[in-house]
Amino acid sequence: MRSRVAARCGRIVESTWFDPLMLGIIAVNAVTLGLETYASIDAAIGEQLRLANGVILGLFVVELLIRMGAYAEHPRDYFRSGWNVFDFVVIGASFVPGIRENATLLRLVRLLRIVRAVRLLPDLRVLTVAVGRSIPGVASLAVITLLLVYVYGMVGWLIFHDHDPANFDDIGQSMVTMFVLLTLENLPAYIERGQELSNWTLMFFVSYVLLASFLIFNLFIGIVINSMEEARAIELHRAERELLDEDDEDHEHAHEVVLEERLRTLRAAVDELEREVRAKE
Question: Which of 56, 137, 190, 267 has the fewest CB atoms within 10 Å, i.e. is most exposed?
Answer without folding.
Answer: 267
